[in-house]
Design brief:
Helix content: 40-55%
Distance between the termini: 51 Å
CATH superfamily of the largest domain: Regulatory protein AraC
CATH class of the largest domain: Mainly Beta
Order of helices and strands: EEEEEEEEEHEHHHHHHHHH
Mean pLDDT: 85
Radius of gyration: 20 Å
CATH topology of the largest domain: Jelly Rolls
Low-confidence stretches: 173-177, 291-295
Protein name: AraC family transcriptional regulator
Pfam families: AraC_binding, HTH_18
Largest sheet: 5 strands, mixed
Organism: Paenibacillus sp. SYP-B3998
Shape: globular
GO molecular function: DNA-binding transcription factor activity; sequence-specific DNA binding
InterPro entries: AraC-bd (IPR003313), Homeodomain-like_sf (IPR009057), HTH-like (IPR037923), HTH_AraC (IPR018060), HTH_AraC-typ_CS (IPR018062), RmlC-like_jellyroll (IPR014710), Tscrpt_reg_AraC-type_HTH (IPR020449)
Length: 295
């Protein structure tokens, strides 16, 4: 039986209108092998170590910026005697939509023909600039001032753009992971599903659109994601449904339709399978929690 690395499914703010989280992590012992369906970047502040992405390693030291795509298997090893301290940012694939969709930020990183490495090493002035940028972004994230979301989005785009510009300018000698083009093609399909989850998506039609056979695309989902196409689609829909149940007064039937389910019964059955409670019970639990917090 194939064993898959730990699959991380939750992070702070994942069900909000702006699925974004930024923190400073201290890793005296590294971080074990894992994967997830969101994007992630890190920027090393202190310490040294090694990161392995899809079986290919690169060094980590102050100024190392790494961007990990959805479902890439990765792990961090801290050098003995050292402690890694780094910025860690995680955000949903749908964060590139809305006001920032025209910039194509997420699409650029998921380009299947792109051969760039997942990391770069900022030196001197560039390292100082990136740290200052992330410091400002972190302070904005911790606050509640007006225009917070807009400034976070702008800061995220600048950080990713400067990373992408730098790695394309600086030639970094690194072994390319095998089948990277095929894997990135699968991520293009996954991104499409994230963007069009409310549509009547079918595996056969997706396969035709992205020039796969249905059986081959199904096999690639299992190989690179560790789950079937149907599981991934349900997971994305339920995640969005949770956000609507928490943040709106839409009826449960309307929520079901909004996230792509044609019937309340199907939505309720799938929701309970993933969340262990019915949509109504989930909303009631959230409302009761809010009341207790406001007492």
């Amino acid at each position: 039986m194939t064993l898959y690395p730990a699959y991380l499914t939750d992070y702070p703010n994942m069900n909000s209108d702006f699925p974004f989280h930024l923190a400073i992590h201290t890793l005296p012992h590294g971080f074990p092998t894992h994967r997830h369906d969101f994007m992630e970047f890190s920027f090393v502040l202190e310490g040294e170590g090694t990161e392995i992405i899809n079986g290919v390693s690169h060094p980590m030291k102050p100024g190392t910026f790494t961007c990990v795509l959805p479902y890439e298997v990765h792990e961090i090893h801290t050098r003995p005697g050292s402690t890694l301290r780094l910025y860690n940012c995680i955000f949903g694939l749908n964060i590139g939509l809305g006001a920032f969709s025209g910039l194509g930020v997420v699409e650029r990183f998921l380009d299947p023909m792109d051969g760039t490495t997942p990391f770069t090493q900022f030196q001197e002035h560039d390292r100082i600039y990136m740290k200052a940028l992330l410091d400002r972004l972190f302070e904005e994230y911790k606050g509640k001032d007006s225009w917070r979301t807009a400034l976070l989005g702008a800061g995220l785009i600048e950080a990713l753009a400067r990373f992408d510009r730098h790695r394309r300018t600086i030639e970094t000698a690194v072994e390319k992971p095998p089948q990277s083009v095929r894997a990135r093609q699968v991520w293009q399909v996954i991104y499409y599903v994230h963007k069009h989850y409310a549509d009547d998506l079918k595996l056969g039609e997706l396969a035709e659109k992205f020039h796969f056979s249905a059986s081959h695309l199904s096999e690639l989902f299992t190989r690179y994601v560790g789950h079937s196409f149907v599981h991934v689609l349900h997971e994305i829909r339920i995640r969005h449904a949770v956000g609507l149940l928490r943040s709106t007064q839409m009826s449960i039937a309307d929520v079901a339709f909004e996230v792509g389910y044609g019937s309340y019964q199907t939505f309720s059955r799938v929701f309970k399978a993933y969340k262990k409670v019915t949509p109504a019970a989930y909303r009631n639990r959230k409302e009761q929690s809010d009341v207790e917090l406001n007492r």
